[in-house]
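User: I'll paste a sequence; please echo it back and then give the predicted structure.

Assistant: Echoing your sequence first, then the prediction.
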Amino acid sequence: MDERHARLALTLAAHVGGALLGRLLEAFGAAAAALRVPARDLARVPGIGEDTARALASADHETAVAEELRRVERLGLTLMVWGDADYPENLRTIPSPPPVLYVKGRLEPSDRAAVAVVGARRATPYGEQVAERLSRDLAARGITVVSGLAYGIDGAAHRGALKGRGRTLAVLGGGIGCLHPAGHRDLADQIERSGALVSEFPVLGRPLRENFPRRNRIISGLSLGVVVVEASLTSGALITARHGLEQGREVFAVPGPITARQSQGCNRLLKSGAKLTESWEDVLAELAAQLRGAPDAPGLPQLPVAPAPLPPFTEPEGRIHDLLEAGPLPIDSIIGRLGLRPAVAAAALVGLEMKGAVRQLAGKVFERAGPS
């Protein structure tokens, strides 16, 4: 068995992670060699334990690998093994990089310029709106958006990236052949066409609860920064943020109402030094040195200088947007100057906010935002 397939065999037999793989390589020189030694020798490796040693020593590795490769071929997946030339650059040096990655879709060199957008499954409409708009704006500027395909903020992040006609990666907590959640199958199909589904778990691996903290380290590991949009104090998004800090990534948080449970985690992150985030500008300003190919991050693509076009406006939206070119105005002045009915003006302003074209200031004052 060659070295690539030996590393796959280790993950199939005992879910060997990057840290344990490193210890096995140090002890025996290669994964293929580790598969040939008896359980008593494996058990001497720090952290392996007798159960894992017995599982590795007794497994029929040849059969297991052959069956898994047939599943990979049947689903049209790409198998990436730690050490391969095309293994994602951002993951290479994190603590415990996944020994094996299953990919449906494609990973590209430009995915090094990636930002994770994560948050609560039980998100508020506000949270989903912010996540979608932020991801759309990042994707439109050449940033790959990484998230976890869950309901709530994750789904909104992927949808936003797709609306921005950019790339997005979904990191799964189970095998690609056991997609979870099933309600996001259509979204997963769209992601595959505009990026990739990624998993470290075997093709038919079930999405077990204990898998998701492991999954979260890959979300942050693929990214240069992690943006948390909404999160309770027990949210898995905070685990992703913690992994990001341990991996040397920038951590961002969107502020929320102090009375909202979904904002408690974000507000705590802000108290701890996370970057307050209201728009794509806040994220890219913090990551500019890396994104522009600074010496400490060679080879990253240049940040596009042309602003992404805004979505088309309705007739009242266009009139309001033109009016605000001269500067901020309160809603009463907008209504009076344009002769709009209050309900029409309010609806148009909401539409412009959702498109990232205007922002609301204190006292129901509105100003332009985004590209002009």
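The chain has three domains: 3-74, 105-291, 315-368. DSSP finds 16 helices and twelve strands in the chain.
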